[in-house]
Amino acid sequence: MSCIFSPEYGTITTMETFTRLMKKDIRLIGKFVEVYCQGRHGAMTRTEIELPCGLGKHRLCAECAEFMAYAVARRVKCPLEHEKPTCKRCRIHCYAPRQRELVREIMAYSGRRMIMRGRLDYLWHYLF
User: Fold this and answer.
1) DSSP for residue 12
2) pTM for the whole thing?
């Protein structure tokens, strides 16, 4: 089974322990990044990446795949696992400033489109 790999952030393997909340967060950011990539990077070549722990496959351009590897690595290493708030309400910001801006852009772009497509379950995450 292949896993997300980034030379800069390392490999996230299935050997690591993933909680139910971690899996939910990784699956959710994967869907948001995929919608963003399809909408903003339509003409770019995409490759299929597999999220760790069998959490799905996504077709992403190189830039989005790199961000996805970063996001998964940050989520796996989150020090607040037992009291994890949503990232925008967190007292510790794991993302570097450039990636924080990118994730805001991804969430804003993808969130609106997913809600308009009838994904009301994402409305809760988008607003809170």
Assistant:
1) -
2) 0.78
